[in-house]
Amino acid sequence: MGIKELFRTPVAVFGMLTLHPDTVRSLDAKQKGTYPLDGVTASVESGEALSQRVTLTRFAAMGLLSLAAKKKSGGESYLLIEGPEFAWTFEVKRGDQAKAQKFAAAVRSQAAA
């Protein structure tokens, strides 16, 4: 990542996530990286819906652990951002669900552009 990348104006920001016109970046210690938006999808899902779904990308990223990963139950929501080379899952605080939805919509919009 060059100096220009650090000072570009982001399209959207949510927590440790930054969306630029052609990339999405996570500064989260466990899910760090910058990836191009080609083939990237984003959504906000309930914990229950997430626990019932294991995508090929998530399986590739976590291996067999994706099948055995501890699943929460209750009113949790998660922001999912998935691409050909990565899969990120971030828990969304109850008061931040609208912001997470807005960020996911921005990711989908930029990825489609």
Quickly list its features.
globular; four-stranded antiparallel β-sheet; 33% helix; 113 residues; alpha+beta; 5 helices; three-stranded antiparallel β-sheet
Summarize the structure.
This protein has 113 residues and is an alpha+beta fold. The protein has five helices and seven strands.
Question: Can you characterise this structure?
Answer:
By secondary structure, the chain is an alpha+beta fold. Helix content is 33%, strand content 30%. It starts with a helix and ends with a helix. A hairpin with a 2-residue loop joins strand 1 and strand 2 (17-19). The radius of gyration is 14 Å and the shape is globular. The protein has one domain (3-112). The protein is built from five helices and seven strands. It has helices at residues 3-7, 47-51, 56-62, 65-68, 97-112, and strands at residues 12-14, 17-19, 23-26, 33-36, 41-46, 77-83, 86-92. The protein has a four-stranded antiparallel sheet, covered by helices on one side. Strands 5-6-7 form a three-stranded antiparallel sheet.
Overall, the morphology is: globular
Strand order of the largest sheet: 1-2-3-4
Residue share in helix = 25-40%
Query: Distance between termini?
Result: 23 Å
Low-confidence stretches: none
How would you sum up the major sheet?
4 strands, antiparallel
Order of helices and strands: HEEEEEHHHEEH
Spatial extent as radius of gyration: 14 Å
Give the total of domains.
1
Strand fraction equals 25-35%
Number of strands: 7
**How many distinct helices?**
5
Mean pLDDT: 81
Alpha-beta classification = alpha+beta
